[in-house]
Here is the input.
Amino acid sequence: MTGVSRRSFLWAGAAAGTVVLAGCVPTAPTVLTLGCGEPGGSYLQFGQLLSDVARGSGAFEITALQTEGSVDNLALLSQGRVELALSLADSAAAASTSGEVVAIGRVYQNYLQCLVRAPDGPRSLAELAGTRVSLGAPGSGAAATARRVMDAAGLSPASATERPLRDAVVDLERGCIDALFWSGGVPTPQIAELAARTPIAVLDTTPVLPTLLQRYPDAYVATTIPAGVYGADSPVPAIGVANLLLARPDLDDTLVERVVDVLIDDAARLVAPGALGIQYLTPASLIDTLPIALHAAAERRYRERYG
Here is the structure.
């Protein structure tokens, strides 16, 4: 061999082979952190299911982060401390300006639940005037929505506190508060456990829905909590709010596409056992994320998958 010894040539070939082989070594899955919610609530439950499914895909991983809920998640997303966040649509709309928050999909419906002790507690939304009310956890979408409801009803409670669900449940059971607001799927496990120990009732909050829709178009819908939930004999009218899976616009397109694929392909595995009510994991509803726009890569992937 001219200019190159055979040994040098073989060494160079071996080195090149090493580079090629190194390129074949699978890289570790990218880990995304998802801002969820309180223990016992639907957000953390959904986040853990999504984490399990993502891990099984082998393409990426999701860490479900315990938080106080929507408002907290939106702040974490804005600060770059999480890559994904779950939020109520109304909280997301209130926090989003100039498109700095985008959606990957609408995943399920939250039910605004106003719970009281039965039969001695308030029997209507109007009777909450002058009572002790927990609006929801600090930093939660429940508290933000509950404040809107109370304001729309013209109600001034004797005291309004913001308590984590676990504490509010204990307070209601002990009679330390007269009502608690919670926004989540139905049935919520911690509330179902309370209902098994203490008779409770869910108040109809829909009398204020027309006012809410005037003030916040597209944020709320009329829905119904099914009969049997928390021991109710009949369905209870309720205010529904969509839950959105959110990201920042600069989240890598490939990762966004992988998340979309999981939402589509593993929808059945993302519904918690025993969950009732509306799950939005269908082709028509996943893309309906108004008032928040879809991430450009998510919109493109939905078009590729659905045509």
User: Anything to note?
Assistant: The first strand starts at residue 30 and ends at 35. Residues 1-26 have pLDDT under 50 and may be disordered. Strands lie at 30-35, 60-65, 84-88, 102-117, 132-134, 159-161, 179-184, 200-203, 221-225, 236-247.
